[in-house]
# Entry
Amino acid sequence: MRKFVAHRAKTLLKTTTSKSNSNYSSSSSKLARFFTSLNSPPSDTPPSMASDLSTPPVTVESLNPKVLKCEYAVRGEIVSLAQKLQQDLQANPGSHPFEEILYCNIGNPQSLGQQPITFFREVLALCDHPAILDKSETQGLFSADSIERAWQILDQIPGRATGAYSHSQGIKGLRDSIAAGIEARDGFPADPNDIFLTDGASPAVHMMMQLLIRSESDGIFCPIPQYPLYSASIALHGGTLVPYYLDEATGWGLEISELKKQLETARQKGITVRALVVINPGNPTGQVLAEENQRDIVEFCKKEGLVLLADEVYQENIYVPEKQFHSFKKVSRSMGYGDKDIPLVSFQSVSKGYYGECGKRGGYMEVTGFTPEVREQIYKVASVNLCSNISGQILASLVMSPPKVGDESYESYFSEKDGILQSLARRAKTLEDALNSLEGVTCNKAEGAMYLFPRIRLPNKAIKEAEAAKKAPDAYYATRLLNATGIVVVPGSGFGQVPGTWHFRCTILPQEEKIPAIVSRLTDFHKKFMDEFRD
Amino acid sequence: MRKFVAHRAKTLLKTTTSKSNSNYSSSSSKLARFFTSLNSPPSDTPPSMASDLSTPPVTVESLNPKVLKCEYAVRGEIVSLAQKLQQDLQANPGSHPFEEILYCNIGNPQSLGQQPITFFREVLALCDHPAILDKSETQGLFSADSIERAWQILDQIPGRATGAYSHSQGIKGLRDSIAAGIEARDGFPADPNDIFLTDGASPAVHMMMQLLIRSESDGIFCPIPQYPLYSASIALHGGTLVPYYLDEATGWGLEISELKKQLETARQKGITVRALVVINPGNPTGQVLAEENQRDIVEFCKKEGLVLLADEVYQENIYVPEKQFHSFKKVSRSMGYGDKDIPLVSFQSVSKGYYGECGKRGGYMEVTGFTPEVREQIYKVASVNLCSNISGQILASLVMSPPKVGDESYESYFSEKDGILQSLARRAKTLEDALNSLEGVTCNKAEGAMYLFPRIRLPNKAIKEAEAAKKAPDAYYATRLLNATGIVVVPGSGFGQVPGTWHFRCTILPQEEKIPAIVSRLTDFHKKFMDEFRD
# Structure
């Protein structure tokens, strides 16, 4: 019966819609039609349906199937298990063979003890409570340049009202600072009107997916392995993820031949590929793209008419001297492509970098290369959520315009930043070496970002055991690791991997003094695991 | 050709999906299938398609049609015009017959000069920069109880890390405070596990729409007039807005007979109505529901198997002694309905009330009456965005647990709160009286919320003039009002109204000393407008 009703509904809705008839062209009258379309009695009236009260009004089966399809491994099953173990440990210390849970599943630096940059927090606190700005005690507590910066920021906010909704794209003055920061970084102009401030990068990604995906025939090109935000967002918006495989053998290289092959395959299947996601530096893979490779990617998008969605949230996280971050905007501009030539969206976040301010939910996207009409639609979607949080907006402007040489805070700022980045580089190297020393494990270098993504060659016996436990082999390994050591990693199957290969993602974020213990617990576990299952 | 491809795609996708074959039942392997489904070469291969490069890759026509359908009047055309006029005034002072733009289009109190509650801002600043908490100067700048409260909050956050992602539902300790606040308000138990902290109430509303709407055959019952977030969100998620009309003649009464009639009509059209939105106190209408009326609504939802979506963000904004706010949860519990009996979601925000902290993007939904399996899906959707901003989370806990009698801040807190609410009540009354004194205008009392929604009886000549200008008559009136006075109101057609009637929404938020000038400008404009068009 439900099926019949649904079909009927579609037919009826079509009739209603095509009958509707415009008197006014203003946008508000379109809306008026949208909700009065149901108001006139229908021409034919099937018998009334009372709802079936024997089941609850909402069941999993009656939810949006796109929601059911969506998955987000970074906070999935393994994290639920970790939370359970943590509760056990609190209730019964000593109930497990470890004293604490080490969350290496998520890029959440401050949860593992990383300290925020003092200057940033000073400015945020002052903007939260401007009443103290001209009190004498304040000068004893805050640096002179943080006080000055807070005044500057407040002056950019109409009425100095940090508690007001801002422009839907974010406060104009803050967008000016961000655009200036992008120009300084790239050496090419940036327009504050191209900046959309968002609550972290995730809502910006969702916004672009919402705009581009019309149906499951629309495809979004994503690297495999990928950050599961992309697969989740594509599933939620009802599109199709079109994979391109990064080449593990060449340090997670991105080959244009692979893009071509997969594009061809997708098109043969009737998929309209609309956009290409590139994550640089890579998540979960940690590679940093070479500029030449980036040029090829830009050329490919240009030629194939794809929107380039550049996830550049790890732009400050580079750990090897031979690699440098180049934004895709800089690369495309240096190739001579202007704003009209290629639609390009760059995502940035305050959650990563040396700042790691995940809880502040700040970020932005720089949107270039779209027609004014399309831009208007992007603005409309942004405006439905009113604006992103002002503290996050302020912080996004601060990370793009930190203290400069000569500012009172510069030295402490630089030493905090440098300390964090140097330490991350050391941690990455230590963990990488440790992983590479394990039997059957190989791990590419983390050139950037915050993760290692080692490949584990699991013995057949372990794979069979996993199948018996109805788990993917890497999920089985990760579960055993967690139960034995308290270390939480995410199985590679949550990110995608070449079928038949197994990986896990492990952040490089635990505090440096904890790394030796982690290495020894991991080594110990792996040795025992292999002893148990070696073929 | 595109159509053919789309059809082909659907067929092919169906084939691919039905062929896929599970080895593992773990959730991560489902994901693996999702993105490897495109990986094997197709069985038959139509010729390769190159994209058409004569048009840009993204045009309005190639965007998601749901996005195109979505409208959001509160930040629509009229606001763009206001921004343009504001720029004019800055560039050429005196270029318009007014000195400033008065934004009465949006409930954004601090943009119009409302000051934040000192205690709340003290706590936020201290949590942003905990390093100053034990400095001696801090005691000279902050109240003792704000320092104490900041410590309490920091102790509830693992590692005191306000810069870390929290649990996807929000920090547990803050949810405990909120649940305690709900219990104190309602006299019935509240469970912190039912609280989902969100970046304002809007994302929470989107989340519920995303879960409940499967297709355009799913309907969401909304009051008309309604807050356009609902129509926008339903359009974005591809559902159908099923209207029920509030009765202007009885002070925007909500009649159960109207609900029954509209439900019947919708069902006859094949719509499965899934949820009922109630906004109490009303937006844009300002009425406060009587408890008896709320009981009838609960009973109706229970009988008809509807989820009750209770927008209760104006719960602190009540201006008449004869009315009181009762949460729908309290009402349903007092009727004897427990957690298993009725699915009910209550939305709350830090943006409204006497606090008006719109820029902080804090809020929560209290989710009760769903099965554990459905709850898991809600949690999953929340987790894809990681968490809401921590300052907003802290503020949401503060508004639900403000200073108490005896706390150092209590007196200043109470006097700030009382001052704001008393002033809002006076402003509402003055504006209401002024509107009612205008020719052809009637305006119901603002018992609560932040808006007046007067009905304007426009002369036929004005309606014809509007038609000639291709505008809805109320949009025409609002545009003329803006051009003549700088006052920004939102045309009633953005909220929905009985066809043939015309209204506008005007906030009661301009500063009290500005109200007389607003009244006189509005009165003057209206008189001239009527003189120009009177039939």
